């Protein structure tokens, strides 16, 4: 057996290693600084209880972005030196974020061991390449992101670090080849197993959805389908599930070969960045050459986000989770015995709230960040959850799940068409959404993002909005001066959350203004940007009147947008006359 030794290396703290909402995300050039990754990995090992490092199995993989392959070898060598027993790596270092969560929860080694956690190498939907972003985050034994107590400790460790441990003489493992490599170190054997990236995840999906009825839908000539992997890690899963298992045509897959730089694109599934899919679905500026497919979807770099489209039709993520919740029990076998509860992040529209009330379900509103859902799920309080930021998921794992969301939608379409696939016109995505609005009312919704704004200016804008909350009569006077037809603001606050499971309190989670007619404005600073500050403005208006639910959402929301921009003095503070992205 190949032997290795352990070397202790001296190091010193490097600034800027504070993990954000979803781990540490920085430019590749930052990660390539001497010791930058090493310090963070050692700080993570030191933050975990000893029994979660010594002798355990860990997963290490990610979305395949530039620098992943180097990072995997470094982490393997550091894990060996820190007494980890076994490392699991997806072939070529590829595992989607939901697949890592699934593997931590469901996979067993030959000796019966399970993984006690894992490093996910991704910067999610941020671009990749030598001059773009890299990222790393740690997930715990429940398959979910490390809680704040751990990430705070990691950060504190990075500020005092003096040494790290590495097995420099451990040869690089060929991660393109399936199999187990064994080594002998001072603390016994150490092994690296490279395995197929999709098998465990596919097995889980098959236990949740009725693949037989999905296959019937996807092979029906009436149903046309398109999936855009945006050159992220979703590609191999899409190929395996949609094409090999469910008989979709190979040509229904766009950009499904993972690339280190995502083909130069921005792997974020929204109307701005998923350009090719948007054009094909008939939602681009120009009419497409061919008749658009009935259904289109995309996932982000690490395949946890999703966008759902119908023919010439966009489903907002806030509507998507509400519609999945409303149909889950009938359409998805995993939920057939009922939902334990549902949850959404605070800025997500209240479409889900209305479904929860109607179905008499437990309902939770949590701060932005998937980890808050994880706690509810571990406590058996929540089955389905979602976020406006194109995240949807369920308690099958502890991450949001892009492919799962697509399968959930396909299941709803299959269920709605179960008796008519060979006969009448297809009940389309648009039909399903419009029927939902007719039943529950419609939440018009839009989000304005101001990216890479000066951090000081962003803080000042937020402080201004908090200050205004002290006197609502003055605010109302001001907004009536802008538009006399806008309804009164009746409540305003900063969102604060007390976790019902562990009692922890999260403050300053976004500034909210509530209007008398049920409309709402929310302002928050993003926790995921890697440069400057990103201000997000979320605008929502509820319409119950079924004769008014068919309007264009930007038109329906124009008044509220004007009020929001003037109230916040957006242009004065940021110097921006328009947002970077509107979704
Ligand atoms: C990540 C998190 C989500 C969050 C999203 C947007 O994807 O997993 O939970 O909603 O980032 O966060 P931001 O702070 O940028 O709005
Ligand atoms: Zn992601």
TrEMBL record:
The entry's keywords: Carbohydrate metabolism, Glucose metabolism, Isomerase, Magnesium, Metal-binding, Phosphoprotein
GO biological process: carbohydrate metabolic process; glucose metabolic process
Function, as annotated: Catalyzes the reversible isomerization of alpha-D-glucose 1-phosphate to alpha-D-glucose 6-phosphate. The mechanism proceeds via the intermediate compound alpha-D-glucose 1,6-bisphosphate. This enzyme participates in both the breakdown and synthesis of glucose.
Organism listed in the record: Amborella trichopoda
Subunit relationships: Monomer.
NCBIfam families: PRK07564.1-1
Database matches in Pfam families: PGM1_C_vert_fung (PF24947), PGM_PMM_I (PF02878), PGM_PMM_II (PF02879), PGM_PMM_III (PF02880)
Lineage top rank: taxon: Eukaryota
Family: Belongs to the phosphohexose mutase family.
Start and end residues of each Alpha-D-phosphohexomutase alpha/beta/alpha domain: 17-164, 200-309, 318-419
Single GO molecular function: phosphoglucomutase activity
Catalytic activity, reaction form: alpha-D-glucose 1-phosphate = alpha-D-glucose 6-phosphate; alpha-D-glucose 1,6-bisphosphate + L-seryl-[protein] = O-phospho-L-seryl-[protein] + alpha-D-glucose 6-phosphate; O-phospho-L-seryl-[protein] + alpha-D-glucose 1-phosphate = alpha-D-glucose 1,6-bisphosphate + L-seryl-[protein]
Alphabetical list of PROSITE patterns matching this protein: PGM_PMM (PS00710)
Residue spans crossing the bilayer: none
Name under which the protein is recorded: phosphoglucomutase (alpha-D-glucose-1,6-bisphosphate-dependent)
Enzyme class: isomerase
UniProt cofactor(s): Mg(2+)
SUPFAM superfamilies: Phosphoglucomutase, C-terminal domain, Phosphoglucomutase, first 3 domains
Region (Disordered): 1-22
EC numbers, comma separated: 5.4.2.2
GO cellular component: cytosol
